[in-house]
Amino acid sequence: INSVEEINDFYLNILGMKLIRQFDLNKNLAFNIFGLHSDIPVYLLTRGNLTLEIFITKRDNREKINHICFSVQDREVLYKKAQEKTYECIRIKRDINDLIFIKDKTGNIFEIKNS
User: Fold this and answer.
1) Which pTM was predicted?
2) Which among 23, 27, 42, 60 has the fewest CB atoms less than 10 Å away?
């Protein structure tokens, strides 16, 4: 989204979500994942079984950073299967839990976490 005010106005007050935490996605990760060259504020929100990471960016609507994140029992199996089928896979090494993203052939980005 383009405005932090939208967190309160829409996500908290309209959708009834709760803020879990706020953090910044550093520019190195932002570039490796989305091809963007700046730190990006992120708000982690929840309601029931739904958790959203909302990115605040002043970017043009054509430069979207949307992605879907979901949990699986063994993400390595999914990662290897996607690689075998020639889907673009992004693994970002970190001290704690590597980040794994897979793109479909249309460019939609899926973050994969272990449940």
Assistant:
1) 0.67
2) 60
Nearest to 110 by CA among 102, 12, 80, 89: 102
Residue 112: which of 94, 89, 93, 87 has the closest Cα? 89
Residue 51 backbone dihedrals phi, psi, to 5 degrees: -125, 130
Ramachandran bin of 56, using left for φ above 0, alpha for ψ from -120 to 50, beta for the remaining angles: beta
Q: What are the angstrom distances between the C-alpha of 74 and each of 79, 110, 113? A: 9, 15, 8
Secondary structure, 3-state, the chain = CCCCHHHHHHHHCCCCCEEEEEEEECHHHHHHHHCCCCCEEEEEEEECCEEEEEECCCCCCCCCCCCEEEEECCHHHHHHHHHHCCCEEEEECCCCCCEEEEECCCCCEEEEEEC
